[in-house]
């Protein structure tokens, strides 16, 4: 029984490590186009959630008068960045509008 549980846990750890590598942009060559699109969607949803939470936090701080005008403008500028608006180039390949960011756009 313990050997089976141990094997299951090792397999689960391996799957989580692979998932983390993929989220960090490593070991992507083994993924299919469908898997890459799913990964991109997961990343986009995560960024959207983070931005929403940050905007809500800024609004809460603004209501409590804890954020001044210049700070608020800087935070809002960061929160409103759109790293996922692709610039479609001939051939159907899409790249981020931020050349220093390595973001793959499929579709």
From TrEMBL:
Residues 1-78 form the K-box domain. It comes from the Eukaryota. InterPro entries: TF_Kbox (IPR002487). One of its GO terms (molecular function) is DNA-binding transcription factor activity. Pfam families: K-box (PF01486). PROSITE patterns: K_BOX. GO terms for cellular component: nucleus. This is Transcription factor, K-box. It comes from Corchorus capsularis (Jute).
